[in-house]
Write a structure and sequence with these properties.
The chain is 39% helix and 22% strand. It is α/β, with parallel strands linked by helices.
């Protein structure tokens, strides 16, 4: 029996009028587990209208009232996050521990937003001129749209909506149609936390839903995460319709390993950052830049670790079932890819790399997975002797493929990073503090790790890259996120003291500074 996954508006599920539906599949089994509504223009208008009706009252609610709801949401999420992780694993395919980690990183932003009262404090200047005071304040935008990708159905929306809601906005979330259930679960949790109806809404669908958000005059801002071509489209269309936009695009993240690095630490990091969540994350390390003479040794260590990874169904029930033969149950290290089409695309890119002359050290096409034969399986793949002209280097693969590029010097490594079209994240592994400090200044990338392979900032710093990894000027969460979801006002006031007011005449000049 399949589940119907609908929209959410006015504090309840909304079936909508469209007759269009899409299958939702469990990637570990290949079986259809549900069907999701695909909005038409009327459905989109109804969901946006729900947010519009709620926005004004919520924006006028006290900071105390808003933060009480945020704290309640945090406590509910903490106590029930296992339910959400189960949904993520069933529809995305990532293993349970990865799903729990995703929720934990999203929860950081919820906790950051709980301090919104401090974050929205304005400034005040007493007697800026004679009898003139000036103060600043930040006001909500109204209705904001969030368009999130399939790879983090909980974390990426939580990069945005806690801050947006805490700042006094109403939200319309458009999740990926590949794993849409997490969004509905979050909507129900908001209602349980006491959020007024209409402040958080879910619009299920495809391009029709996206375009409705981009074009609606009632939507003031758009937050997007996805591939670079779609990020550029979202930025151009939303900007054309007068909206504020933050559109985070794709990446090709490099990890530079200098000859003095701890190679065991670097090998562990490369495996974790390259193959975690099946490589389906914009901060995954997909290129390892080995500065000679360490490449042979480093590739051997990575290959040894990669071959030990267990690929299989990451659900807790599958893990428990695997232990019934007397062996201790072991959770899979990596699950399937999200769809069969995506699995085949990544496999095709592996074929392309091999045909171009790169050496296949570990071949994920030969994986023996613990799970159903119809699952979308592809194991971790390690390439050596990759060159920048190859398709596997140029393309954002978004799968468990790690490419090793050999260079002769630090300068060559930095030049390689900076020549790339993307500027999302990069890392350097070294025991030389001077080299690390120089690297921080030399690379043209928005997020940098030093002996940290995936440098996703904590919530009170902002997330986002440079170049073709970001369209718009504002990053996610942190101070930039607060500024994105609010508008600044500056108020200048003058109160005349009747006892000191001169008699007669008009004053046409500026106030006197006495």
């Amino acid at each position: 029996m399949t589940t119907s996954i609908t929209h959410w508006a006015d504090g309840r599920r909304l079936d909508g009028a469209s007759d269009r539906w899409a299958d939702v599949t469990n990637p570990a089994t290949g079986q259809v587990s549900g069907r999701v509504a695909l909005a038409d223009e009327a459905d989109a208008a109804a969901v946006i209208a729900s947010a519009s009706r709620a926005a004004k009252a919520w924006g006028e609610a006290s900071l105390a009232a808003r933060t009480q709801v945020l704290f309640a949401f945090r406590e509910l999420l903490n106590s029930r996050k296992g339910e959400l992780a189960h949904l993520i694993t069933a529809e995305h395919g990532k293993v349970h521990s990865d799903a729990m980690g995703e929720i934990a990183r999203g929860q950081e932003v919820v906790e950051f937003a709980c301090g919104i009262s401090h974050l929205l404090k304005g400034g005040h200047s007493d007697s800026a001129s004679s009898g003139v005071d000036v103060h600043s304040k930040r006001s909500p935008l109204g209705v904001v749209g969030i368009i999130s990708p399939f790879n983090f159905p909980a974390m990426v929306p939580m990069w945005f909506f806690p801050v947006a809601i805490a700042a006094g906005n109403a939200v319309v979330l458009k999740p990926s149609e590949k794993d849409p259930s997490a969004a509905l679960w979050l909507a129900e949790l908001w209602k349980e936390a006491g959020l007024p109806d209409g402040v958080f809404n879910v619009l299920q669908g495809d391009k029709v839903a996206v375009d409705a958000l981009l074009q609606s005059p009632d939507v003031a801002a758009i937050s997007f995460v996805g591939s670079t071509p779609i990020a550029q489209y979202v930025y151009e269309q939303a900007s054309r319709h007068g909206k504020r936009v933050q559109a985070l695009g794709g990446a090709k993240n490099h990890m530079v390993v200098l000859p003095d690095a701890d190679l065991d630490l670097a090998a562990d990091a490369a495996v974790n950052a390259g193959y975690g969540s099946a490589g389906e994350r914009c901060m995954a390390i997909s290129v390892l830049v080995a500065v000679e003479p360490v490449a042979d040794d480093l590739v051997a260590r990575i290959a040894e670790r990669t071959r030990t990874l267990l690929i299989g169904d990451g659900g807790t029930s599958a893990t428990e079932a695997a232990g019934t033969d007397g062996e201790a149950a072991r959770e899979a290290d990596m699950g399937p890819l999200v769809t069969r089409a995506h699995r085949d695309k990544v496999a095709g890119l592996i074929d392309s790399g091999e045909a171009a002359g790169a050496k296949v050290v570990v071949d994920g096409r030969e994986v023996q997975a613990r799970g159903a034969e119809d699952g979308f399986w592809l194991g971790p793949t390690l390439f050596d002797h990759v060159t920048p002209d190859m398709e596997i280097y140029r393309e954002e693969i978004f799968g468990p493929v790690l490419s090793v590029v050999r260079v002769s010097s630090y300068d060559e490594a930095v030049a390689l990073v900076n020549a790339n079209d993307y500027g999302n994240g990069t890392a350097i592994f070294t025991n030389d503090g001077g080299a690390a400090r120089r690297f921080e200044n030399d690379v043209e990338v928005g997020m940098i790790g030093v002996n940290v392979p995936i440098p996703v900032p904590v919530a009170y710093y902002s997330f986002g890259g440079w170049k073709r990894s970001l369209f718009g000027d504002t990053h996610a969460h942190g101070t930039e996120g607060v500024h994105f979801f609010t508008r600044a006002k500056v108020v200048t006031t003058r109160w005349i003291n009747p006892a000191a007011r001169p008699e007669g005449g008009l004053e046409l000049g500026f106030p006197r500074n006495v």
